Amino acid sequence: MSLTLWNPESRSAPPRRSGMDDPGSEGRFGRFGGRFVPESLVPACEELERGFREAWADPAFRAALNQTLALYAGRPTPVTPAARLSAELGVTLLLKREDLAHTGSHKINNVIGQALLARRMGKTHLLAETGAGQHGVATATAGALLGLDVTVFMGERDMERQQLNVFRMELLGARVVGVSSGSRTLKDACNEALRNWVGAVDDAHYCIGSVLGPHPYPWMVREFQRVIGEEARGQCADLLTHGVPDVVVACVGGGSNAAGVFAGFVDTSARLVGVEPEGGAAVTFGQPGVLHGFQSYVLQDESGQILEATSISAGLDYPGVGPEHAHLADTGRASYVTMSDDEAVAAVSRLARTEGILPALESAHAVAWVLRAAGTADLPSGSTVLVNLSGRGDKDADQLARLM
Amino acid sequence: MTAGPLEAHLRGRRDAGRALLVPYVTGGVTADWLDYARAYAKAGADAIEIGLPFSDPMLDGGTIQEASDRALSRGVTPGGLLEELSGANVGAPLIIMTYGNVVYRAGPEEFCKRLAEVGVAGLIMPDVPYDEVRGLSGAALAAGIELVLLAAPSTTASRLERIAAESRGFVYGVTVMGTTGERGALAESAGSVAVRLRELTTKPVLMGFGISTPAQAVEAAAHADGVIVASALMRRVIEGATPAELGADVLAIRQALDVPQG
């Protein structure tokens, strides 16, 4: 795994093709991915893979998805040139505005895709895990839109910390089930959702919130998030002299918003940078392992017990990372760096004051990298950089008020 | 492939007309956890399944989750538990049950070699299905560890055939679409999994998940070669029952299974 950032001398080198294609029937991204689930769940994963392959090849499904994203979720989201902050930093900073999507983040792209697929496959019930509640709220929203029952598993500790989102999910008609096992946070909610899915596979679809889980989830969720990168590619072509930014940067917890925006630029000369939170940096500090159905880098102790992630940003608080990111790190096509809680909080405030945009704490990690790198060899003056602003910060206002 | 020592042992007992009984204990759940295993052996266990606790046991219900949490909060490690097994002389063949990450972290070759060194005969990994086991089966084979595969009610015919062919030691039939844990009644799916497996293989077929009482054990064993009992025993351990008391529980199941059926 290389943690070295891009070297300016290699700027003209053609990018290596790597990952971000169909991972095949075994769901492999290099040495990562796969389908590490109990035998009971294998047929359900196979059924889902077949269902997704058929739907994704079906123009009618794609049309229904695109129409829902446009008429309901607010796509396309704009790319906004951050004029004042760009001038301060000496770089051209563009923001892909997923914060403007319905429910306030990119999460909606994936849940609408999965909910439409679940309905097409004859499922009547969606199961979801949630940490801070963003994916739970998005799933509850898609369930309400399409008339599907929704059960959201949430760690009891997260329920205490995010009472408002629990209420939002219930307002949207979802049932929220508290998880009291283990660390009572996101990873335990994933375990509980998987356990419940085993007993409910006939009627229920497990709507995973990131590029995680057994095959086909990491691939399928990336494909549902690819819309971010494809839109941004076209928008950058209109806005930038060279058409493609020098760098594309996104925060990485499980890694779904990063996977979506990277997918639009992986075949270009753009450097791809994933920003992990210091307290949950699986690519940077993890070891290869198996968690929640897939092989990837995982934060764990010497004997293989999974460690708890501890980031200020609940949405990045996950001890693993999507297997495709692990592979992109292995091949060097993307590089992964970490930002501290303090740098993320400072970035929220800087972007709010210079651009009138309050980013989610998650997304602020990507902005923070630009603040740190601008004017250094990592991001020389005059560079162009696209930040995927994955979500809006309204949800974090209480937390920020206590911190500032 | 010729039968390994675990399979030969279980076959021999099965062919002698005995219904097989494999009770479970979570390694490290108490300081004297090995005494539970010894009590099981004395009560007539044909083999003993030992769980190496994992922080995120995806296929386990509340009881085994709690047993795992207790063990981990006592500070036990897989390496330490295997060390305790070394020379422990439990009195029955031992089968380790643990999740894939514990094995991958140690390295499959190292892990299987270590199992063999401490006298373990078999290995079960509930989150590593047939398709993903290939990378591990070589390591297990080289170390002489019999890698047991699971079959579920949802397993398709073609997968079931491959699982029956490739499982070593015995074939683990999962009775129910769900996690481990006690249930009021044995799932209807239990019988069909057992029957389907026995049509495909002469290897011992043992049923597990939700087998809690002597009566349920007899019911599950009717179509199979034996049963695995875990959560019902671990609930008693968590409640504070002694090794002698657990030995009596296992003996009650043993005696029920030994009553001539039909």
Automatic annotation (TrEMBL), chain A:
Composition skew (Polar residues), residue ranges: 1-10
Region described as Disordered: spans on this chain: 1-29
Translocase in keyword set: no
Its EC number(s): 4.2.1.20
Cellular component GO terms held in the UniProt record: cytoplasm
Associated pathway: Amino-acid biosynthesis; L-tryptophan biosynthesis; L-tryptophan from chorismate: step 5/5
Keyword Plastid attributed: no
One matching Pfam family: PALP
Molecular function via GO: tryptophan synthase activity
SUBUNIT field: Tetramer of two alpha and two beta chains.
Family classification: Belongs to the TrpB family.
General function of this protein: The beta subunit is responsible for the synthesis of L-tryptophan from indole and L-serine.
Record's protein name: Tryptophan synthase beta chain
Gene assigned in the entry: trpB
UniProtKB/TrEMBL annotation, chain B:
Keywords of this entry: Amino-acid biosynthesis, Aromatic amino acid biosynthesis, Lyase, Tryptophan biosynthesis
Active-site residue list: 49 (proton acceptor), 60 (proton acceptor)
Pfam families: Trp_syntA
MF terms in GO: tryptophan synthase activity
GO cellular component terms, A-Z: cytosol
EC number of the protein: 4.2.1.20
Class in the EC hierarchy, top level: lyase
UniProt catalytic activity: (1S,2R)-1-C-(indol-3-yl)glycerol 3-phosphate + L-serine = D-glyceraldehyde 3-phosphate + L-tryptophan + H2O
Pathway: Amino-acid biosynthesis; L-tryptophan biosynthesis; L-tryptophan from chorismate: step 5/5
Top-level taxonomic group: Bacteria
Keyword Amino-acid biosynthesis: yes
Keyword Transcription regulation carried by entry: no
Function: The alpha subunit is responsible for the aldol cleavage of indoleglycerol phosphate to indole and glyceraldehyde 3-phosphate.
HAMAP family per the UniProt record, alphabetical: Trp_synth_alpha
Family that this chain belongs to: Belongs to the TrpA family.
Assembly with partners or alone: Tetramer of two alpha and two beta chains.
PANTHER family: TRYPTOPHAN SYNTHASE ALPHA CHAIN, CHLOROPLASTIC, TRYPTOPHAN SYNTHASE, ALPHA CHAIN
The protein's name in its UniProt record: Tryptophan synthase alpha chain
Organism of origin: Streptosporangium subroseum
Gene from which this protein is expressed: trpA
